[in-house]
Amino acid sequence: QVQLVEAGGGSVQAGGSLRLSCAASGNTASVNCMAWFRQAPGKAREGVARWRLRFGSSAIADSVRDRFTVSRDNASNTLYLQLNPVKPEDAATYYCAASTYVNCGLSANIFRDWGQGTQVIVSS
């Protein structure tokens, strides 16, 4: 099992920036993919970005591709998500997830381990 702890959420003005982090611990050797999802109240969970560890390749959802960046620090097993600029529609709880799938996408059902989430509040 892998433990995931997100951090970096909070209140931000529209147009500002925010950096979320996700620290993985436990059986990290089993992880082949990490991803960010988000869920706003009353809306479905949405895949935002993923990182395939074996290839060091990443992908961002079309809806945020021009504003979000995903990166990973291998030494610390930490995944990051940079939001810049933030828009009001980015307000949500952001979750980090880990999967054993090598060629992962952004389907939530392939992710076994999930963090508790970090909330992003956007003021306009």
Describe the 3D structure.
The protein is mainly β and 124 residues long. 0% of the residues lie in helices and 52% in strands. It contains no helices and 11 strands. It has strands at 2-7, 10-13, 18-26, 33-39, 46-52, 57-60, 68-73, 78-83, 92-99, 113-114, 118-123. Strands 2, 4, 5, 6, 9, 10 and 11 form a 7-stranded mixed beta sheet that branches. β4 and β5 form a beta hairpin. The model has no long low-confidence stretch (mean pLDDT 97).
Structural class, from helix and strand content? mainly beta
Number of separate helices: 0
Strand tally is 11
Give unreliable regions as ranges. none
Portion of residues within helices: under 10%
Through-space gap between termini = 40 Å
Beta-sheet strand percentage? over 45%
